[in-house]
Amino acid sequence: MNVVSLRAALNDSTPVHFMGRLSALMPDGRIAVEDEQGAVRLCRRAASCLLRPGVGDLVLVSGPDSTRAYLIAVIEQADGAVSHIDSAGELKLGGQAGVSIESAGDVRIQSGATLDMKGLQWGLRADKGRCHVDEMRYTSQAVDATVGRFRLVGKVFEVVADRMVQMARNALRLVDEIDQVRVGHLDCKATETVRIHGNHTVVTGKDLVKVDAAQIHMG
Description:
The structure is a single chain. A hairpin with a 6-residue loop joins β4 and β5. The chain has a five-stranded mixed barrel with strand order 1-2-3-5-4. The chain is built from one helix and five strands; from the N terminus they run αβββββ. The chain is 4% helix and 15% strand. The protein is mainly beta.
């Protein structure tokens, strides 16, 4: 670093406006920029320069004097593969009509704290989707879902409802161990055939057991 040129730049009160190469990022937030003559100028990043500068970038520095010089724009990045837009405080994007984020490649949204989404209406469309949440709580007034195939695999499945209605053309339930039903009244009706079979079948009633049919075969 040219110390003589640096001291001369600090004592100069003339307006500053030049393009140079960013040579160093100081821990205190100041930026060292080398101009075309090889002199190193110290400046700070302007609030309007949202593109994060990097070492080797071609930048534009401007200010009323050397003590109030600011990096106002990144003209050319040394590595244009990745561009970072950031600010010292909270960053908000807004528009009077709408805001769109479009990319021909991938779009990733990542937060180290809370990712909050809010709107009057939410629409999502994709050819394929994958969602992984360690713990989730969902609250809604109504849910309507139409799927061609639905499969649910889990260790514990609980449903609590005031009223449950299931309708199907065919239904099959396989239970390896115990299937228990506890109800106040149980009504089973079939238009054709009812079959109950087991190695040991017990039908008991505390007050009354009634069997009624046109024919009864036992044995």
